[in-house]
Amino acid sequence: MTKSFYVTTPIYYVNDAPHIGHAYTTVAGDVLTRWHRQRGEAVWYLTGTDEHGEKIMRTAQAKGVSPQEWVDTLVENEWKPNWRALNIDNDDFIRTTELRHTTRVQRFLQILKDSGHIYAGKYEGPYCVGCEEFKIPGDLTLSGEEWLCTMHGSPVEIIKEDNWFFRLSAFVEPLLAHYAAHPEACQPESARNEVISFLKSGVKDLSISRSTFDWGIRVPWDQDQIFYVWFDALLNYATAVGLGDDSESKGGKKFAEVWPPDVHLVGREILRFHAVIWPAMLMAGNLATPKMVFAHGWLLVGGEKMSKSKLTGIISSEITNYFGVDAFRYYFLRAIPFGSDGSFSWEDMSARYTSELANDFGNLASRSAAMIEKYCAGTLPAISHDANLQAALESTVATADVAMCALDFQSGILAIMDFCKKVNGYVTEKEPWTLAKDPTKRGELEEVLYNTAESLRALAVLLNPVMPATCEILWQSLGAQAQLGDLNEQKINDIATWGQLPEGATVIKTPVLFPRLEVHA
Ligand code: ME8
Description:
Elements: E1 5-13, H1 20-38, E2 43-50, H2 54-63, H3 67-85, E3 92-95, H4 99-114, E4 118-128, E5 133-134, E6 140-143, E7 146-149, E8 157-166, H5 172-181, E9 186-187, H6 189-200, E10 206-207, E11 209-210, E12 218-219, E13 222-227, H7 229-234, H8 236-239, H9 250-258, E14 263-267, H10 271-284, E15 293-296, E16 299-301, E17 304-305, H11 316-323, H12 325-335, E18 342-343, H13 346-376, H14 387-405, H15 409-430, H16 432-435, H17 442-463, H18 468-477, H19 480-484
The structure holds ligand ME8.
């Protein structure tokens, strides 16, 4: 069986509706998985929601509903529709209140307990409900007499409880050895360095249960306790694909097909959970650790992380209503190096929309279709070649493939848009509208029109993972479907093979791909 390329997003807290920070990660995962599908690989893309813990319980209480009612409403009315609206093609959606999750969590943790990785102890120390995290001194800021969570700027609570503990400290050396042998397992390099210095600073055992509230998964051997929300949440990546199921069952087969995960996408504030606690849990359970945890940067507002708790979250529809879904999918990956922080700016997005999407890409597509309609009655002329365009396309595909597979979305998209610029340059230089005036130049005119359409065929495939709805319109406009089949079925490896659009294809004009922006009120 060939292993599926398995990609995950964090499962998001459903204490509120999603904002563009969540969309940033989920779109990145969607682009990555669509790219890999077009490489002809089997892919499994998982996202979902983190529904337990004190934060959600308190939010529900404040709204006067039960936690289950609260999460059900938010998942169905806000989270799932948000991903549908952004054209996210996930293969599964896991909710931590689902039975498939809770039973597998209990079974797995019973195994860890039985094999001596879990013991009873007392926890006393600071806890941030916003982060759902037991804090260490380095995570706190003193304000007057009060200790604040540096991330949320809100006071931490002192917890004193009898809890169950996971022997995390036993995995410090194995984890250091793991990252020495597999540096690619934690990326980018700055994230890996942070994890290594955290590991070297002395990691304590982790309290993995709570007894003062009950919105969580019961500890199977101690009915007075529920699991700490992160211990439950991290396991979603495994429970969603059949963790611990019999190898002949559906779940067991799925697990064998996808495990270990190829890429866990996370924001950098939850790196330690994913690159320290999570692989330690897997090592304790004798399971293979993820091939890569990639910590991307934050979308900032006023220099700070955009967040629900600070009420700085912009919802995606505020942007998509104006720029459209595909421009949204394009913009963040194009504008911000994946791994660095970046600010959203309406002006920058407008400028890129107009110059890169409307002028460079959209105009090329509409000009090409309009000329084929006008000069060739909408019928594609005979196949022709242009050595420069072909060479440029070959190197574009190679560069973009390396970059996209390395999660360097910005370089990948840039390479593709550079090719788009070259094609524009080709049209400007050849001046088909001048050639059309001279009947002796008919052959040359047809060559230019074919080469431009064929370049657009390649652009439609290359940009499809990023802007699927727009590229589908272009695909239809080029009359490519009849001869070449579905756009999603086109393979990255075949893009640079020139001459795929057949002579005689029916090219049709479509509405402009990126309409001129209205003045924003
Ligand atoms: O942490 N910029 O959930 P969460 C970029 N439930 N990405 C952002 C962002 C921003 N300003 N804000 C949020 C949790 N994100 C846990 C995860 S996983 C087992 C449990 C994205 O709702 C980014 O991916 O707080 C970040 O890590 C995630 O949303 C946090 O979502």
